[in-house]
Structures are given as C-alpha cells and as structure tokens.
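User: For this week's homework, look closely at the record that follows, marking any run of repeated tokens, and judge whether sequence predicts the tokens.
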Amino acid sequence: MALSKLSAPVYSIADIGGYRSRAEIITQYGISAEYTAVNSSTAWYGPEEIDVQCSGENVPLPDNSYDAVISVDTLEHIESKGRKQVISEMCRLSRNFVVVVVPFLGSSLKMDEEILLEITRSGGICDMPSLLEHTQFGLPELDDLKEYADQFDLSIEPATPRRLYWAGQLAMAINHVSLGNGALDVNEKVLIWQEKYLQTCPKPVDFSDAYRAVMYKGGVPE
C-alpha cells in the first residue's frame, strides 16, 4: 500500500518500523532501491534483521538522506505523545516521498483488537504482543491523523476496508483456536490471500468503513 504512493522512481527507501525481510517485498513490487530498515528492536515473533536500531523519534541519520521514507503499521505501536515526532523525523529524512500507513480508532465502543483477543483467550491462545500494544497505547484517532496531515502538509485518505480486514483476522484466530499448530499452514494461505485481495479490492469511499488511513506527500523530483 505504501509503495503504491511512490509516483516517481526512487533509489533509496528508509522504512521506519521495518525489517530487512521487507526488502524482498519491495523487489517483488518492481522497485529497485537501496532499502534501510529502521527499528527499535527485533520482532516479537522471531529474529529479524535491522539496519539502524533506534527510536523512530530520533533517527541518527542526516537530513534528506532518502528518496522515500515509509512507515507501515508502526505509529500505533508508539506512545501517543511521540507519534508526531516520528512523522517529523520522516519528513526530515526524506528528500521527496513520505508515506505513513496506520490503523485508526473506529466508531465502535470496543476496539476490534479487544474482540479478537477475547476469542483467542477463550481458546487458551497466548496474546499477540502486537495486539496488546494496540490496546496499551491506543490507536490514533482520525482527528489526530488529520491534525498531523495538516501540520506536515500530507494528503490523507481512507485505506483497507475494515470489515474485510477483520474477517480475515477473525478467520485466522478461529483456525488457531480450533486447529492449534495445525492452523499455521492454513493461516499462511489465508494471510497471503487477504493481502492480495486487499490490494485489488475497491478502496473505502470514506473513513467510516476504513481500518487504516494513508498519509503521504511527494512527487516527481526536480
């Protein structure tokens, strides 16, 4: 999703909250660019390689270092008081594109994440740290994202249909509860299908049906 906003050739990409394994995804997308993974720690699910280990609020790299600086599903894992600074750092590091993909709090009284945690707990499944951080730090509200977009001159639009995204997440949770370790192969196939489908299905027409927002700026380099 973030890569689709790169409307001109890029030769260097910094991924705030990324891992080296994502470099392969960029290659599969047809982009040949030097990739730098910036993260504060490795992944909860296993070892992942990082190029620059630091907080996204203070990245020890020079201004205008990259053609594009992206961040996907990372901002919600940062305390709310630090989110604006992360976007500020992304803008500082980029000489052209900035793309932030982030889930935001919907209108329901209970977070979708809390419902999913209830289902997995009912089957004795350990809580996913990533979901716990969503509930611990709280998803950003849409008004917060619009404020960030105004401050940093970013466009903002809805992305990822909420119901379709959580239908896939719920299916994988039920598979995990009912099949145990036997769900690993099945869920991998579900995840691959879901990601492909979400890339090609109609985008939400407004934020009321969206789980994520995408904030972005950049264009053809001078």
User: Anything to note?
Assistant: The two ends are 25 Å apart (CA to CA). The first strand starts at residue 12 and ends at 16. The chain is about 40% helix and 20% strand. The helical segments are 22-28, 80-93, 112-122, 129-137, 142-151, 162-179, 183-200.
